[in-house]
Write a structure and sequence with these properties.
This protein is mostly beta strands. It has one helix and eleven strands. Helices cover 3% and strands 36% of the residues.
Length: 143
Amino acid sequence: METIKIKYFDNEIDKIEKISKGDLIDLRAAETVKMKAGDFKLIKLGVGMKLPNGYKANIYPRSSTYKNFGIMLANSVGQIDNSYSGDNDEWRFPAIAMRDTIIRKNDRICQFEIQKIQPEIEFVEVDHLDDESRGGIGSTGTN
Ligand SMILES: O=c1ccn([C@H]2C[C@H](O)[C@@H](COP(=O)(O)OP(=O)(O)OP(=O)(O)O)O2)c(=O)[nH]1
């Protein structure tokens, strides 16, 4: 089992409980936010963490987030770097509102998992790649 140091920036949101293997972990809005259609807001998630060495975190919307709140995650997948672990490094949900909406403090608006960081990579420039070209995006058709 991995242990993660977690800091709560707000004492009014529910705390995260022990997680079964494989399950994504829900996160809560740490503020009440009113948004108009088209607004952008970095919604506070009320937590900061020291992830295990060699791991990052991915934040995704919950499947019901759009239905319940009409917001989308502006960056598609939120990337929490391992180095985002300072005392003021609170996690946020970059939200785009598609309709007028209210997100209330403690609402569960997203979920996250931790993931191993890719290995160190060095680039070697070449003039040609050896493999057969695939014919462009969509070349395999739709059926
Ligand atoms: O949905 C997100 C995405 C990122 N972050 C935090 C953690 C991450 O480590 C930091 C920086 O993210 P990233 O490197 O993806 O953003 P950037 O636009 O390149 O900003 P920076 O110049 O801070 O690296 O912002 C969040 O709280 N929520």
